[in-house]
Amino acid sequence: MKAIYLKELRLTRKMMMIWGALIDIFTGFAAIEFVVLKDTLAELAEAMDSYPKIVSVLFGLNGVRVDTALGGYQCMVFWNNLLAYFFAGFLGVYAVAREEKFGTSEFLFSKPFRRSRVVWAKIWAAVTNLAIFSLTVGVMTFLCIILPLGDMNVVGTHITITFGMFLTQIVLFAIGLLISSAVKNYKTASLFTT
Q: DSSP code of 154?
């Protein structure tokens, strides 16, 4: 099982680097945006107060002003989580349906391992990838969003949100895994998971 786990980590290394770079770039752009707009955030918050409540919910600001540290953090985390959740669902599909797509499932399941051990090794490798991804999001958000905003009271909220994001990713990964094992077609499983 350890060999399959390590092999799965090696196979998904490139995908992890691409998604990690994507989230790093996204968070970096958000940090630049907050630094550039720091002087006009009060005006933006007043404008947001005049909009219907649904608009503030769409931007992840449910009852919080964007000119506060918590509001700026909440706005960014909302969009980071969207990327993280798509990644988790895609990873669930990729774990099983990839073997069908490339025709390697017959070879993999002919090894002297039970099928359940092979699948569990893939699941643990995916959970490891999700943990690394969540840690990357947490660190980048802290460095690029919380530190520039200057309010360290948000750190407890940040840790809770990062852990919650990881747990939600695991649930969405499981849903993607279930869909990919039921559908048996990579494109269809990706479509249903999305």
A: G
SS3 category, 72: helix
Around 156, how many Cα atoms within 13 Å sit in the side-chain half-sphere? 1
Terminal-to-terminal C-alpha distance of the chain: 30
Residue showing tokens 């995908």: 15
List of E strands, the chain: none
Residue pLDDT, tens place only, 81-137: 888 899 998 888 888 777 666 555 555 555 666 777 877 888 899 999 999 999 998
Q: Which helix (H) or strand (E) holds 5?
A: helix 2-11
Give the contacts of 61 (CB within 8 A, at least 6 positions apart): 48, 71, 74, 75
Which of these, 155, 7, 182, lies nearest to 93 by C-alpha position?
A: 182
Note the pTM of the prediction, 2 decimals. Answer: 0.82
- φ, ψ (nearest 5 deg) of residue 37: -90, 5
Spatial CA neighbour of 131 closest among 92, 85, 165, 166: 166
Task: State the number of CA atoms in the 13 A half-sphere of 104 facing the CB.
Answer: 9
The b/e string for 140-179 (b: 16+ C-beta within 10 A; e otherwise) is bbbebbbeebeeeebeeebeebbeebbebbbebbbbbbbb
